Amino acid sequence: MSVQTETLTDRTAAMTQAAMTQTAARADTAAIKMLARNVKVYYGPKQALKGINLDILENRVLALIGPSGCGKSTFLRCLNRMNDTIENCRVDGTLQLDGEDIYGRMIDTVQLRARVGMVFQKPNPFPKSIYDNIAYGPRIHGMATHRDEMDEVVQKSLERAGLWNEVKDRLKEPGTGLSGGQQQRLCIARAIAVSPEVILMDEPCSALDPIATAHIEELIDELRENFTIVIVTHNMQQAARVSQKTAFFHLGDMVECDDTEEIFTNPRDERTQGYITGRYG
Amino acid sequence: MSSEHIVRSFSQELQRLVNLITQMGGVAEAQVAAAVKAVTRRDVSLAAQVMQSDPRLDEYEREIDVEAVRLLARRQPMAQDLREIVSALRVAADLERIGDYAANIAKRSLVLAQLPAVRPVSAIPRAGRLVEEILKDVLDAYIERDVEKAIAVWKRDEELDDLHTSLFREVLTYMMEDPRTITPCTHLLFMAKNLERIGDHATNIAETIHYVVVGQPLKIDRPKSDSASFAVVSPAAGFDLITDQDVT
């Protein structure tokens, strides 16, 4: 008895292949909010930044990581000209906000810092009431003329910082009487009150416990809808949790900047790899 | 990344994980080889031994899981370290499945040993040799972190697929010629399928090696030539078919 064999493969196999072909294209199309080109910073004769190029995307969280003394805080302070207050500090290169040079002659640094707000490592509320901590900025910028308007700004800011429910009944009490985590949220509320476009955070959680830290991280995620955020952190997991982009600084250089996911799963540079995995360089 | 972690116990724990995978791979390799041998030699006691040894692989998998989860929780690994640990979980799962297939081959060999030998059984050691080679190469590639070798294994799976397809047709034909061989031949079909699946898990491991070393999933398409699923063996003209007329 003879037997014939045949297969029906080709067409079916081709269809299967086509269905499995991956079409993965991933590119962030967010607008550039701030831009740094060849930024060099000197403290006297010592060079702290060696020509940084970086794009800061709108409504994204950018995390700056790197060992102590790598220049990440120096770079952060360039973004709202906080370095101007340091004697002997010289900044070279181009830094733009919405395409405008922030080191230009016509720039008013007070206005600039209203547009680019800052939150520091240690909560630093003014020695005033909770209400006045928030109202201070809008008042000096003439943003609210009536008491009602000011009340609204204060309430909105505290609500956005996730603090309103905890302090609404004691707005007259001193801001310094709050817990560490609450004080930091108060500082964030204070930064938000003047409606900035960019918020800079310099290790905002390093003095907080894990619960307070979680509140701030949740807040950062919510704030991203309306603000552009740049955060300096020593906590690798925090950078991985809160940011979309991460830049690694090392000895005054920006080594690499990429999607956060890429940086923490597959960094390109050996130095980044060594730092984030805790190895000797 | 060869340099040590600043926290040395982290490096030691990662090394322990790699060692466990290496040991587990050795056991899986031995299980497959023994199962194929049991079929070829109709060796019932060897088959029983393979079946009894399978829980060892399950135990390895559990141990690797525990170790990996502990590392994830305690060290919050990043980059290379993270990929290393995720891969260990994947490879352990693949090896455990490979062990299951080996045990299944051993189990079926018990039935075959009780029945008269059928000709197509000779294809099992042929496919078995190929599987053993593939498995050895992929485990070497894992230990050596050799992406080239891993990709070579990955491509070699095609040979195994071809062999499976031809074996499938051969066995089908044999059964048609002599329906008394249906019982042993059916077991042979499952054995061949098991070997083919072991090859697939070896290619999974090859892909995992690529991910550990390169950091990206392997994106090229693997040549697939296992067409057994589409095989039709139809009787030639003149074969006695039951027609409508016969029924009425």
- CATH topology grouping of chain A: Rossmann fold
Largest interface, with counts of residues having CB < 8 Å to the other chain, equals:
A-B, 32 and 34 residues
- Poorly predicted runs of chain A are 1-9, 11-26
With helices defined by DSSP (H or I, 4 residues minimum), what is the helix count of chain B? 7
The appropriate CATH architecture of chain A is 3-Layer(aba) Sandwich
What is the molecular shape of chain B? elongated
Strand order of the largest sheet of chain A: 7-8-9-4-10-11
CATH class of chain B: Mainly Alpha
What is the CA-based Rg of chain B, rounded?
Answer: 22 Å
User: In this structure, how is the largest beta sheet of chain B organized?
Assistant: none
In total, the number of strands of chain B is 1
Output the number of helix runs of chain A: 11
Number of separate structural domains of chain B = 1
Low-confidence residue ranges of chain B: none
Distance between the termini of chain A: 73 Å
Mean pLDDT of chain B: 91
Oligomer: heterodimer
Order of helices and strands of chain B: HHHHHHEH
The CATH architecture name of chain B reads Up-down Bundle
Largest sheet of chain A: 6 strands, mixed
CATH topology of chain B: Methane Monooxygenase Hydroxylase, Chain G, domain 1
Secondary-structure blueprint of this entry?
The complex is a heterodimer of chains A (281) and B (248).
Chain A: E1 3-7, H1 9-20, E2 32-43, E3 46-57, E4 61-65, H2 72-78, E5 89-97, E6 100-101, H3 109-115, E7 116-119, H4 130-140, H5 147-160, H6 164-167, H7 180-193, E8 198-202, H8 210-223, E9 228-232, H9 236-242, E10 245-250, E11 253-259, H10 260-265, H11 270-276
Parallel strand pairs in A: 4-9, 4-10, 7-8, 8-9
Antiparallel strand pairs in A: 2-3, 2-5, 5-6, 10-11
Chain B: H1 8-41, H2 44-75, H3 79-114, H4 123-144, H5 147-177, H6 182-214, E1 231-235, H7 244-247
